[in-house]
Amino acid sequence: MSYDLMVFDAAAAPKGRPAFMAWYGQQTQWTETHGYNNPDVPTPPLRAWFREMIETFPPMNGPLAVSDDDIDNPKVTDYSVGQWVIYAAFAWSEAQAAYRLSVDLAGKHGVGFFDVSATDGDIWLPVAGGQLSKVNR
User: Fold this and answer.
1) Segment 28-56, tens digit of pLDDT
2) What angle do CA 67, 70, 71 make, to 5 degrees?
3) Residue 105 belongs to some domain of the structure
4) How many CB atoms lie within 10 A of CB 1?
5) 8 within a domain of the structure (yes/no)
6) 73-83 pLDDT, tens per residue?
7) pLDDT higher than 80, residue 26
8) How far does CA 118 lie from the centroid of its chain?
9) 56 and 75 Cβ atoms separated by less than 8 Å
10) Could you give the CA distance from residue 14 to residue 50 in angstroms, rounded to a whole number?
């Protein structure tokens, strides 16, 4: 079992919940024409979020992956990196820390945040001052 979340380029995502959920479904079909482990694919704000996030939660796969010796570290995270989204699956034991850091970095880097694992997960969009604002249902 994992704790899953997604950060996204807010300029590319619809603003209302129903439209966002349809867009989320499209994004998670993983139909882009590149591999999903390439850290150079996402938009600059997502790339900045990713680069800072992996300092604490290193990737399991891809060119920046940890060595096989570190694979049992609970902080090692499975990322799927798209152009407009980054989906992350954390060890459940790291859920609280991953949530806090992900939200903080989403505000800092001006990207949206979607709490995939939560029932009716909250969607947050960046606003001025490095903050996030919850999307109304």
Assistant:
1) 999 999 999 999 999 999 999 999 999 99
2) 90
3) yes
4) 8
5) no
6) 999 999 999 99
7) yes
8) 14
9) yes
10) 22
Dist CA 135 CA 34 (whole Å): 30
Question: How many Å apart are CA 92 and CA 8, to the nearest integer?
Answer: 22
The answer to whether 59 touches 65, Cβ cutoff 8 Å, is yes
Q: Are strands 123-127 and 131-134 parallel, antiparallel or unpaired?
A: antiparallel
pTM exceeds 0.85, yes or no: yes
Instruction: Please answer whether residues 134 and 28 qualify as being in contact, where contact means their C-beta atoms are separated by less than 8 angstroms.
Output: no
Domain range for 102 is: 36-83+93-137
39: Cβ contacts below 8 Å, ≥ 6 apart:
47, 50, 51, 62, 63, 64, 81
Please state, as a whole number, how many other Cβ atoms lie within 10 Å of the Cβ of residue 29: 7
Residue 104 resides in a domain: yes
Total count of residues recorded for the chain: 137
**Strand order across the beta sheet in which 2-8 lies:** 78-81, 85-91, 2-8, 112-114, 123-127, 131-134
The kind and range of the H/E element at 107 are helix 95-109
Number of domains in the chain: 1
